[in-house]
Amino acid sequence: MFIEPRVGNDNHSSHKGWIEVICGSMFSGKTEELIRRLKRAKIARQKVEIFKPSTDKRYHELDVVSHDSNSIRSTPIGFAQDMLLLGGSCDVVGIDEAQFFDEGLAEVCVKLANSGVRVIAAGLDMDYLGKPFGPMPALMAVAEYVTKVHAVCVRCGDIANYSYRNAASEEQVLLGETDSYEARCRHCFTEGMKKKR
Ligand SMILES: [Zn+2]
């Protein structure tokens, strides 16, 4: 389990600000882990803002919603850049579905962290083809802390890090279509991809 280096305010106000990334496949509990960390920051009376890409229209427009409906209110925004204006005065900025943001995300997170904000971003590390997803690789590179969370392979029960798509669509993003995906381990993912060819 990730233990925060610091939760509340301390004397090193000039040393505040860092980046945490929570990543993994679908059904790995990324959002639950994001919510857990944000709730702890709130208990420590930190000013917390949560952003998600406005393309994510699943469930409620204003909530970061995890699959177990343990949710926190969030603000949908169009561009990563918007976070500089809206999140600059916060102690903690949470980002959900980070993989859907534009390539400017890493730079924005660095600016926020440099100005003293603790940034916690959750997102898919790989798309359904097993390729690095959007701005995630760059973000993971500049983060102090990267936590990979894992799902359980629905085929064999091993640790799963792939989001395998059953549907035939070629689009990278199939929002709200969780029924068409399975968490799979490396072996079962590769077997499935071979059969598709
Ligand atoms: Zn498996």
From TrEMBL:
Q: Which reaction does it catalyse?
A: thymidine + ATP = dTMP + ADP + H(+)
Q: Where in the cell is it found?
A: Cytoplasm
Residues forming the catalytic site: E97
Binding, Zn(2+): C153, C156, C185, C188
Protein keywords: ATP-binding, Cytoplasm, DNA synthesis, Kinase, Metal-binding, Nucleotide-binding, Transferase, Zinc
Q: Where does ATP bind?
A: G24, S25, M26, F27, S28, G29, K30, T31, D96, E97, A98, Q99
Keyword Aminoacyl-tRNA synthetase included in the entry's annotation:
no
Under the heading Gene3D superfamilies, the entry gives: 3.30.60.20, P-loop containing nucleotide triphosphate hydrolases
Main location per UniProt?
cytoplasm
Top EC class of this enzyme: transferase
The entry lists its GO molecular-function terms as: thymidine kinase activity
Q: How is the quaternary structure described? A: Homotetramer.
Per the record, the similarity remark reads: Belongs to the thymidine kinase family.
Q: What is the protein name stated in its UniProt record?
A: Thymidine kinase
Which species does this protein come from?
Pontibacter silvestris
- Lineage of the organism: Bacteria, Pseudomonadati, Bacteroidota, Cytophagia, Cytophagales
**What gene name is listed for this protein?**
tdk
